[in-house]
Amino acid sequence: MFIVGLTGGLATGKSTVLSIFRDNNIAVIDADEVARKVLEPGTKAWKELRDYFGEEVLYPDGKVNRLKLGEIVFDDIEKRRKLNAITHPRIQKAMMSMAMMYFFSGHKYIVMEVPLLFETGKMLAFMHKIITVICEDHQQLERLCKRNDFSEVVARKRISCQMPLEQKVARSHFVIDNSGNIESTVKQTESIIKVLHRSKFTWYFRVILLIGFLSVAFGVGHIISNLINNVT
Fold first, then answer.
1. Residues in CB range of 122: below 8 A, 6 or more apart
2. Is residue 222 pLDDT above 50, yes or no?
3. How far is Cα 80 from Cα 70, in angstroms, rounded to an integer?
4. What is the pLDDT of residue 211?
5. Which parts pass through the membrane (predicted)?
6. What is the secondary structure of the chain as a DSSP string?
7. How far apart are CA 189 and CA 177, in angstroms?
């Protein structure tokens, strides 16, 4: 099995593309969904978050107020580092555990959505192919303002904190332009799915594993044979 990394910028349409892969019966891992599970009330990460940031980052029902938390860490480097230290290792561990589950289930490949794939660099080594989702600058700004109820000033600041889309595109194997209608995005995504389905990487990997297994088996068998001959 190989892993396809899906990334992009804030509000460029990563979730839309991920849903298209899911609709095409491709196994997907959504980093945002994993992050929510990692911070569910009562978990170790949730307790550490509450102890460090206080009750102000929680809703009355105990769930994490992610918008409030984002406001707190955005302009405070130390608090942002603390948040990352609490969440990132657990999120990455959970995502890799899910990937292993899919591996043993016999999937040829999976799509893993990682918003900060290039920024953190922690998951890059596991990605066989990378897809970046883009859209026009004005669309990204409008979508982010609408989605998170941000002012234009705040939205621009948030976008500027991520790696420019041009740099992500330059380091990607595929690009999906989500500037148009949904039909266009679906068509681009399904074209990539056809390419991924044709990939021979899985078979090369299986052949290598088989050769390795046979080598080990032959080596063990040879050792046992020598021991028997020496005894007799």
1. 88, 92
2. no
3. 9
4. 52
5. 203-224
6. -EEEEEEE-TTSSHHHHHHHHHHTT-EEEEHHHHHHHHTSTTSHHHHHHHHHH-GGGB-TTS-B-HHHHHHHHHT-HHHHHHHHHHHHHHHHHHHHHHHHHHHHTT-SEEEEE-TTHHHH-SSGGG-SEEEEEE--HHHHHHHHHHHHT--HHHHHHHHHTSPPHHHHHHT-SEEEETTS-HHHHHHHHHHHHHHHHT--HHHHHHHHHHHHHHHHHHHHHHHHHHHHHHH-
7. 10
In this predicted model, what pLDDT tens digit does every residue of 112-137 receive, in sequence order? 999 999 998 989 999 999 999 999 99
What is the number of residues in the chain?
Answer: 232
The C-alpha atoms of residue 70 and residue 116 are separated, in whole angstroms, by: 15
Residue at token pair 């939205």:
155
Q: Rounded to whole angstroms, what are the CA distances from 43 to 21, 46, 117?
A: 30, 5, 25
- State the Cα–Cα distance between residues 144 and 1, nearest whole angstrom: 34
pTM of the complete model: 0.83
Nearest to 12, CA basis, from 170, 131, 183: 131
